[in-house]
Amino acid sequence: MLTIPEYYEGKNVLITGATGFMGKVLLEKLLRSCPGVRLAYVLVRPKAGHAPDARIADMINCKLFDRLREEQPDFSEKIVAVNSDLTLPDLDLSSEDQETLTGSINIVFHCAATIRFNEPLKDAMQLNVLATQKMVSLAQKMKNLEVFIHVSTAYAHCDRELIEEVVYPPPVDYKKLIDTLEWMDDKLVSLMTPKLLGERPNTYTYTKALAEQLVQQECGNINVAIVRPSIVGASWKEPFPGWIDNFNGPSGIFIAAGKGILRTMRASNNAVADLVPVDVVINTTLAAAWYSGSQRHARPRSMLVYNCTTGGINPFRWGEVEYHVISTFKRNPLEQAFRRPNVNLTTNHLINQYWIAVSHKAPAFIYDLFLRMSGREPSVLVCCTPAFLSTENCINMTFKTNPLEQAFRRPNVNLRSNPFTNQYWTTVSHTLPAMLYDAFLLLTGQKPRMMKTITRLHKAMMVLEYFTSHSWIWNTDNLTMLMNQMGAEDRKVFNIDVRQLHWAEYMENYCMGTKKLRNIRYTFNTVLVVFIWRIFIARSQMARNIWYFVVSLCFKFLSYFRASSTMRY
């Protein structure tokens, strides 16, 4: 059997979602570890006045591609940006681009999707189901297609406790639902959404299950594989440990805990936190395409499903997550932290609400009040809108050993499975401190912001409670089979063996990665302000006068300081 790099040699690959978190890592890994790949076509829509080519050029300048840039300086010549919008008819492809793609593509990686859990059902259907349908339709026209990889989620069937590597029938037929939504207005769709979701917690998991059914039914003779990652986190090893480029997923919660804003959340300490590093997911995706593509003539045509999870192989629990995260940020503090990091988890709803009010809202209110009284604008980072929740032990340990600068208070997070206990501590640790802090800001003439931050945090926590309070059993037989089919060198280069993953080390690298990302964003904003001010000075006489006046004062002050320091008495 061909090795993975040998299989990709001379192949043309099409990637959707290439500007997203997973898509970037997929593109980088493909070009770096499979240097023989011919071209990588990426479907990109114009955004904020930037053409697809400009967006890709900007994307590949990030740190993620530094290693690839050193090893292959001309790698960008293999990337072809294609103007496309997955929500428009025919993907908004020009006739020329359609002809190019249908005539040359060998492998398709469909990674694009909305990751907003509570997206309105119509929007979620448009991005997760209808876009997939259009991609399948395009794939059916491809003359040289060898394999179509659909990236789903391990939570697509979260209404089941045991999830096998098969496609389960959804509660409704996706075709009938598409037809129904066409004539319904948004208000009616909103009313019927809870009944449609049933035991599923949100529209994201619901529509991803429908997309799997669509792929199974409409792919026909196409060689297909589905990869289902669980909670995708920072990189484990590649291109370097702890790489992350967003505050989605657990990352935003980690920052909230490190800042001392998050103190309590409803979760079960014993529930498995099924985090999976992004490089493991990408290696699985590339290996899945290799196996299905290289074996397409040697085995009966069937759609393979891979549960890319860690819980059944190397389990890590939410209580452990909390400990490591808090400890790391106490050792390496974040700038402008609200307070010392500390998080508590509880399963009791009422106790959780109590501690939200006491530990979140009350301190936020006090802090905003203090800023107002001192004549300053509140500077607390609003970073609490992620898609997944971190837990007690990892949060506490990581942020205590790696504290964030200017934290609101010392990191301390507690996970509580009892909803009543969690409600209590939410009131005590969140609501009351936030209210008091905002009151202080008002008294000092400043704009209160802490309650707004706490409110956003609580909304995120409500969305995530389902996932931090439950555990699932995922069968990973196909994943194990895939690993066994790989040669020794491939297993090293495309590592998917999470049995080797040391969680304490991974969580520390993860938290440090979120800290670096936050510092990079602050630096970028500072540089941007200076740049805009420089342009303003060049165009405005008044701005120049102000600038020269400030510089002159500074110069006079320094001259006076230098002169006074040399005076002899």
Automatic annotation (TrEMBL):
GO terms for molecular function: alcohol-forming long-chain fatty acyl-CoA reductase activity; alcohol-forming very long-chain fatty acyl-CoA reductase activity. It comes from the Eukaryota. Pfam families: NAD_binding_4, Sterile. It is an enzyme of class 1 (oxidoreductase). The chain crosses the membrane at residues 522-540, 546-563. Signal peptide: none annotated. It is a single-pass membrane protein. InterPro entries: FAR (IPR026055), FAR_C (IPR033640), FAR_NAD-bd (IPR013120), NAD(P)-bd_dom_sf (IPR036291). This is Fatty acyl-CoA reductase. It comes from Danionella cerebrum. The lineage of its organism: Eukaryota, Metazoa, Chordata, Craniata, Vertebrata.
